[in-house]
Amino acid sequence: MQNEVMTCGGWLTFHLLVQPHPPAPLMFLGYKEHQKRSTLNIHAIYSLKIKRSSNTMDYDDAIRNLPIYKAAMKDDWVTVEHIFDVHPDKLDAKITCWWETPLHIAIGTNSSHVFVNKIIERIMDTDARKLRTRSWWGNTALHYAAKVGNTIDAKLLVSKDPDIAQMVNKDGHTALKLAAKYGRLGTLWYLLQVTKDEPGEDGTSPYNGAAGADLITLTLTAGFCDVALYLVKKYPDLVTQKDREGQTALQVLATKSHLFPSGSPLRFYQHLIYACIPVNLEKSSDHLLASFFSKFILLVAPCTKEIYNMKLRHIQTLKLLEQMCSIVLQRGSQAIAWDVLGTAVSTAVKNGLYELIKVCVDTYPDIVWYEDEGFYLFLSAIRYRQEKVFNLVYQMTGHKVFSATDNPKGDNPLHIAARLSPLPRLKTVSGAALQMQRELQWFKEVEKHVEPLYKDALNKDNKTPRKVFTEEHKDLLEEGETWMKDTSSSSTVVGALVVTMVFAAAFTVPGGNNSNGLPLFLDNGIFLLFIISDAIALFASTTSVLMFLAILTSRYAEEDFFYALPKRMMIALVSLFLSLAATMIAFSATLALLLQDEISWISVPVTLFASVPVTLFAMLQFPLLVELVYSTYGPSIFKKKM
């Protein structure tokens, strides 16, 4: 039977319906895509084939039409013009295995504009309906233009056939939706102007129902807040509608950390620029304000334009968020507000987007009691270790919502804080020791606010919070101990070598001693520098060795990671750095002292070279030291307004 069914449509449909995999080599180009298609889609393809049985093709046509394919790719109209003169039916011939026409191929290059212009002229002269010829998956040429962002040819197509913008492919996508899906901003703005708010081929409007919700969620996924703001203002019903994945626009927005300031980390100088740079929402995000100040900061800081666009995006996001929350309340339905705002808040807390949560809670304060998997908002902040959300809710509400314990394991808030952080949040701190410290900080912070009864309460597993903490952090405790011991052991060797060298140097002073046992260079200022630096090196290296030994002999209890061990590691690292720096100074002073009469210029290069190992040590260890100091002595991550 397979040998009898030789047409493209018949052969293709037969194999799709009776075989789990498409035949090779016929279907190899789209194998992965076809694996994703459901049985319903396969039958939809079958229906498409039945409707277009007259348009089936011999797959050898793909070889015979190869010159047209290459000409369309290269924008070479002259080469194939005579072919269309002789065979006008090839204007919409299917020249690939996916039923793509020369117009599809040329538009898909986003560069063959001459070819597109000429072939559209020919089609309009023969049969304008050929502009709507579809590919195998139901895509028109406008769909291809939307995919690649070919606004030039999209405008030409729509000018010839305005209703082509309403056509959908087999996934139910208009060209407008594909422009949003593939992140083609320019084409998306254009198609928004020409795609009408009226039923299309599938009987639904592109701006209503699941199709409209798809459009705005895809727009937000691409990060086009200005487009989303436009859609919300023009079609407010989109805010409360759900897309094909069952998500609202607010829920999708709650996953886009980069659209909010908290999800856009900046360096110190970038923060200064961000705070000072002016933003005008009336102007395009591609242009800075035409002011002297803007031109000046753009000159001294080339990254200004990027920061400007980032700040503009953040402001647009905030306005979009406020607009959507306002629309939700205008519906006057508690069920809608609870569903739309609640799902957005529960998603935002997982991503730490406290800005979104703040606007939602300001809009509808009762949303703090929205339950997600048995956890209210405050408990979710503890569960996902989102300190900014934790602080925000505590400051905004004045509610002590710790009493909610209806989660699956019957844990009270302290049990929740005792469990191991989700891996992404745990990895925000480097090193097992500091991760253990952060876990203790969370546990102690929650412990301050719970009822005394909760501190020894049992959950459904008959475990107290402290027991849960010990069991959950057993592996992390071992990793922290191993890291501390390995670091201390390696550093102790270095410290001991420095102690040995500088101790010996103190009794074998440069130049030797006179008959009275006094150093010959005793009155020289450089010798005084040598003595002082040697003494500092000795004291600092001895201190570092003692601190590292104290770490090695520590009991490594859980509480030790909160303060004692980080403090010892800080003292040890600082002491080791001082000892190395002082040793290099003593060495440089010795050379300068001995060679000052013979080679007076030796001090400068020696000093430069001596600074290399000190600089390397600082570069390698300074980030760890800063993190230790900041985590132990820096401002608390828990900040509450009284």
TrEMBL record:
Q: Which keywords describe this protein according to UniProt?
A: Membrane, Transmembrane, Transmembrane helix
Q: Which residues cross the membrane?
A: 493-513, 525-552, 573-595, 607-633
Q: What Gene Ontology terms describe where this protein resides (cellular component)?
A: membrane
Indicate yes or no for the key word rRNA processing: no
One Pfam match, given by its short name, reads Ank_2
Presence of the UniProt keyword Membrane in the record: yes
Per the record, the domain of life is Eukaryota
Q: Which residues form the PGG domain?
A: 482-592
* InterPro entries in the cross-refs: Ankyrin_rpt (IPR002110), Ankyrin_rpt-contain_sf (IPR036770), PGG_dom (IPR026961)
Q: Which PANTHER family match?
A: ANKYRIN REPEAT-CONTAINING DOMAIN, PGG DOMAIN PROTEIN-RELATED, CASKIN
Question: What is the official name of this protein in its record?
Answer: PGG domain-containing protein
Which species? Mikania micrantha (bitter vine)
